Amino acid sequence: MGGVNTAGVRAEAEIRARADGRGGTALPVLESRGPLALRRTRGSGATAHVMLVGAMSGPHGGDHFTVRAGVGADARLRVGSAAATLALPGQHGGQARQDVRISVAAGGELHWLPEPLISVTGSELAVHTHVDLEPGARLVLREELVLGRTGEDPGRLTSRLTVRVDGLPVLDQELDSGPGAPNGWDGPAVLGGHRAVGQLVVVDPEFTDKPVAPDVPADGLAVLPLAGPAVLVSAVAPDALTLRRLLDRAPASFTPASPATPASPASA
C-alpha cells in the first residue's frame, strides 16, 4: 500500500457527551476543523443527536481525517452522517487515512450509525475504528462499505475495527479489498463476488446473563456472539440498499442461547 502523502488535507472532529444532571445529555465539546463539520440536531428523550457533515468531498489521496467521540457515565449519544462518504483519488496520489476513536464510560450509551463508505475506483484509503468501553457501557456501531460505484471497480480499501471492553479485546478484524489486496478477497470465503459488506456490533451488559445464540437468519447475514457482552452481525449484499435492510433486521433475530448448548465466545 502506498504511503500517506503530506500534501493532503488534515481534518479533525471531536464530540464529548456527558449527563446533564437533569435526565438529559449535554455536549460540552462539539468541535470540528477542516472539511468535517459537526451539527447537533433535534434529539429525543435523554439522547443527544449529532450529525457529521462533510463540508467538501473526500477523503482524497493523502488526506488524514480523525474523529473522536467520548461518552461519559449515564450519557446517551447518537451519531449519524448526512450522506455517504466517498473515498476519492487525490490530485497528488497516495493513501488517505481515516481514524475514528471512541470511548464510552460505564452507564453510557452510544449509537454510531454513519452512512456507507464508498470506495471509488483509483482511490486508496485505510480506515481504523478503535472503540474502548468500560464495563456497563452500551454500544451499537454500524459499518457499511461499498466497493465501487455502480458499474465501476473499487479502489483499495483497508478497514480495521477494534473493540475493547474493560481493556480486553472483544473484536479485532480487518478487511483488505481492491487492487493490490491479497488474493482471495473477492472469493467465496470472503465477499463471494458481492460489492457491499457491513457489520453491526452490539455491546450490552444484559448479554452477560442472556447471551445471544449464533444464527444465520437470512442469506448473506450471520449473527455471532463475541467474548464478553457483545454480538457481531456480519452481512454481504450486492448493493448498499440490500445491505442496510439486512443489518436493520438483524437485532430482531437475536435469540437467547440454549442452556444446553451455550454460545461459544468467539473473536473474529
Overview of the molecule:
The protein has 268 residues and is mainly beta. The chain has one domain (10-252). It contains 1 helix and 18 strands. It has one helix spanning 240-249; strands at residues 10-19, 25-33, 36-44, 47-54, 64-71, 76-81, 85-87, 96-104, 109-113, 117-119, 124-133, 138-147, 156-165, 168-177, 196-203, 215-218, 221-226, 230-237. Strands 3, 4, 6, 7, 9, 10, 12, 15, 16, 17 and 18 form an 11-stranded mixed beta sheet that branches. A 7-stranded mixed beta sheet has the order 2-1-5-8-11-13-14, with no helix packed on it. Strand 13 (156-165) and strand 14 (168-177) form a beta hairpin. The longest helix is centred in the last third of the chain and has 10 residues, at 240-249.
**How many beta-strand elements?**
18
Low-pLDDT runs of 5+ residues are: 1-5, 260-268
Mean pLDDT rating: 87
What percentage of the residues does DSSP assign to strands (E)?
over 45%
Task: Looking at this protein, list some descriptive labels.
18 strands, mainly beta, nickel insertion, 268 residues, UreD
Question: What is this structure's SSE topology?
Answer:
Elements: E1 10-19, E2 25-33, E3 36-44, E4 47-54, E5 64-71, E6 76-81, E7 85-87, E8 96-104, E9 109-113, E10 117-119, E11 124-133, E12 138-147, E13 156-165, E14 168-177, E15 196-203, E16 215-218, E17 221-226, E18 230-237, H1 240-249
Family: Belongs to the UreD family.
Subcellular location: Cytoplasm
InterPro entries: UreD (IPR002669)
